[in-house]
């Protein structure tokens, strides 16, 4: 049944116009058992994009593991936090999403920096051996 928004008379669902006052009737409700239309996810301005953080953290982890195996695994922390961004946004927790994004970024930077750190240690070790060779 539909109720005329203008005069309040009730009509069958297949009526498009009120036959008493001529006002258009609202569209019929979805049939019982039909899949409810999911509410559109709200768009948060300035919300961190989980996919961007995810891609960068995965790349940093691969890079870190390739050049500096055990230390590069720290990038997994970035992946974990990046995957939490989506969940936080789903709960409407914009602050939580930003926190997860920042933590993801820290791990991503650490993982991406691990080859540089390895390079630095390599250079130091190299210099050490050169000096050791010179002064030995
Ligand atoms: Zn009416």
UniProtKB/TrEMBL annotation:
The record's Pfam families line, in alphabetical order, gives: CD225
User: Which GO CC annotations does the UniProt entry carry?
Assistant: membrane
Q: What is this protein called?
A: CD225/dispanin family protein
Name the major location: membrane
Q: Where in the cell is it found?
A: Membrane
Q: Which residues form a coiled coil?
A: none
Q: Which UniProt keywords apply?
A: Membrane, Transmembrane, Transmembrane helix
Give the transmembrane region(s): 53-83, 104-135
């Amino acid at each position: 049944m539909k109720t005329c928004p203008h005069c309040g008379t009730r009509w069958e669902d297949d009526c498009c116009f009120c036959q008493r006052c001529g006002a258009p009737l609202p569209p019929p409700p979805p049939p019982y058992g039909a899949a409810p239309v999911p509410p559109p996810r709200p768009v948060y301005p300035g919300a961190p994009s989980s996919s961007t953080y995810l891609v960068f953290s995965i790349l940093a982890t691969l890079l870190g593991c390739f050049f500096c195996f055990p230390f590069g695994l720290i990038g997994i922390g970035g992946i974990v936090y990046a995957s939490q961004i989506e969940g936080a946004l789903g709960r409407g927790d914009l602050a939580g999403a930003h926190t997860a994004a920042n933590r993801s970024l820290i791990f991503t930077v650490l993982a991406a920096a691990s080859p540089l750190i390895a390079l630095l240690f390599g250079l130091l070790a190299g210099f050490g051996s050169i000096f050791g060779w010179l002064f030995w």
